[in-house]
Amino acid sequence: MLSALGLVLAVAAADGASPSLAGSSAPSPTPACQGPEFRQFDFWLGNWKVIGTKGKEVGTSEISRVSEGCAVREQWRAADGKGGTSLNYYDSSDREWHQDWVGGDGTILHLHGGRQGEAMILVNRIPTRKGSYSNRITYTRRPAAR
Questions:
Q1: Coil, strand, or helix at residue 117?
Q2: Phi, psi of 117 (to 5 degrees)
Q3: 51-104 pLDDT, tens per residue?
Q4: Are the CB atoms for 37 and 90 separated by under 8 Å?
Q5: Domain boundaries in the chain?
């Protein structure tokens, strides 16, 4: 037990942080992702039934905050049981939102974009031998139920 504690303290000290023991009066650091831009995707949080254009349920999606509030995770489950996950985050260096999607069918997407009015719009461009094509996903707040 003592050697594990020594390792933790050594890592913290090497990182430049001051090690402290539980119960000490040292203030906790300010969370990293507190600006309003990090909350632009909060309207997506929750558990959703996803309805297709023909009115049939096509899957479910669980959207939650992860990484101390610095990212939004999507866990998708299609009606046929296949799934996928995306990690969405705001990058203050380029002032854009990014989405990295990995589908159970092998689909990989890297999208980027941001708020345009009341919508979150994420896009990518994929080159092919015949030119290129784009993916564009638009997320909008669902109107309140009546």
A1: coil
A2: 65, -125
A3: 999 999 999 999 999 999 999 999 999 999 999 999 999 999 999 999 999 999
A4: yes
A5: 36-140
